[in-house]
From TrEMBL:
Keywords: Iron, Metal-binding, Oxidoreductase. Belongs to the iron/ascorbate-dependent oxidoreductase family. This is Clavaminate synthase-like protein. InterPro entries: DIOX_N, IPNS-like_FE2OG_OXY, IPNS-like_sf, Iron_ascorbate_oxido_reductase, Oxoglu/Fe-dep_dioxygenase_dom. Residues 185-293 form the Fe2OG dioxygenase domain.
Length: 375
């Protein structure tokens, strides 16, 4: 019998690396303290966001089985024939990231193509039904994908957004209300797979599978990744590997939260390298949830008492055009992805949307330069 959309082979994780890598020391925030031990959790969060800008969330209630099942679904989808995956490509001309992203761009000045592919799925909710890519495979698994997305939203995103607001001494609902489940946002669940490169290709691209970058939304949730490669730029200006923590969700703050907090929450720079030798021949399957700006969010500094005391608050210029979350995100995606070469010189120039200048050059050689950027 021909395989049907309902047949999903169970994905099995490759073995952990035995190599001694230089790992970042990351805080762990236990979300089972939410909301009963809110004050304690706020202290934990303050430490986590101010240290590296990447931290682990534990006690979130999402099981290994649920995560493993999503890895299996993502893996099965990305193993479909290319013609099928190509049915609903991301419309980069419009800065629309929903759909399939093929590994077609050339990496910098090399002749090597991007070795990663991804499928980005909007929240499965009526207000965004028109954005859901119409694959039979997704339709066949829609109910469980929606349930997983909803669980991420209620168990992880909602408490985090509330805690960000409380840290800024804003009403708890400040970020959450515009990003409630049913509201239109550019959030997406992503299945992403890097396929092994030949040693020659990796040499040609300096072993970099994903250039240094920041993420475009409020916060990114990375499900456990056993195949090493992700590196974080620490406040000391050093690239350190993100450790693997079973059932720990890796969290990082991103551009929109940085704009809304005048840089109090840093948009953390990270990149992905060729895996260590004992994992280099495995595919690197990943599941992520990218929280992105609500369509109607105004990109401006929040009127936070903390930011005011720190001298970071700046009232928006009443004559400057208001940039919406939708405009910002679409411009950001278009700038990054609507180009044949990944990370070319045009890309590195950054771009402007409304009165907002967005920096996109995170390729450095010297430690001094790294330090300047993260300061
Ligand atoms: O693959 C990873 O570990 C990170 C991917 C990432 O940073 C991104 O897609 O923005
Ligand atoms: Fe990223």
């Amino acid at each position: 019998m021909a395989p049907s959309a309902l047949d999903v082979r169970t994905w099995t994780p490759p073995p952990a690396t035995q190599e001694k890598l230089d790992y970042a020391e990351l805080a762990q925030v236990d979300l089972s303290k939410w909301p009963a031990k809110k004050d304690e959790l706020l202290l934990d969060m303050r430490r986590a966001v101010n240290e590296v800008g990447f931290w682990f969330v534990v006690g979130h209630g999402i099981t290994d089985e649920e995560i493993g099942r999503q890895m299996s679904l993502g893996n099965a989808f990305l193993d479909l024939p290319l013609e099928e995956k190509r049915l609903f490509p991301c419309d980069f001309k419009q800065g629309n990231f929903f759909g399939f992203r093929e590994g077609v761009r050339l990496m910098g000045k090399s002749q090597v193509k991007d070795n990663a592919e991804a499928l980005n799925l909007p929240k499965i909710t009526p207000s965004l039904a028109h954005e859901l890519p119409g694959y039979d495979f997704i339709a066949a698994h829609q109910v469980e994908i929606e349930a997983f997305q909803r669980k991420i939203h209620s168990n992880v995103l909602a408490p985090l957004l509330s805690l960000f607001a409380l840290l800024l001494e804003l009403p708890e609902s400040y970020f959450l209300t515009p990003h409630e489940w049913d509201r239109r946002t550019e959030d997406h669940l992503r299945y992403m797979k890097y396929r092994p490169n030949s040693p020659e290709d990796d040499r040609a691209i300096g072993n970099i599978h994903l250039n240094g970058h920041t993420d475009f939304g409020l916060v990114t949730i990375l499900f456990p990744q056993i195949v090493q490669g992700l590196q974080i730029l620490t406040p000391e200006g050093e690239w350190k590997y993100a450790p693997y923590l079973p059932n720990g969700l890796l969290i990082n703050t991103a551009d929109v939260l940085s704009v809304c907090s005048a840089g109090y929450f840093k948009s953390t720079i990270h990149r992905v390298l060729r895996p260590p030798d004992d994992q280099v021949n495995y595919e690197r399957m990943g599941v992520f949830y990218f929280s992105r700006a609500a369509h109607d969010l105004e990109l401006k500094v929040a009127p936070s008492p903390l930011l005011k005391r720190l001298g970071l608050y700046k009232e928006a210029d009443p004559n400057a055009p208001v940039v919406s979350g939708l405009e910002f995100t679409r411009a950001r995606v278009k700038h990054s992805w609507d180009r044949p070469v990944y990370g070319d010189d045009e890309y590195k120039k950054g771009f402007k949307v409304g009165g907002l200048e967005v920096r996109t050059d995170y390729d450095f050689d010297s430690k001094a330069e790294l330090k300047r950027v993260v300061a």
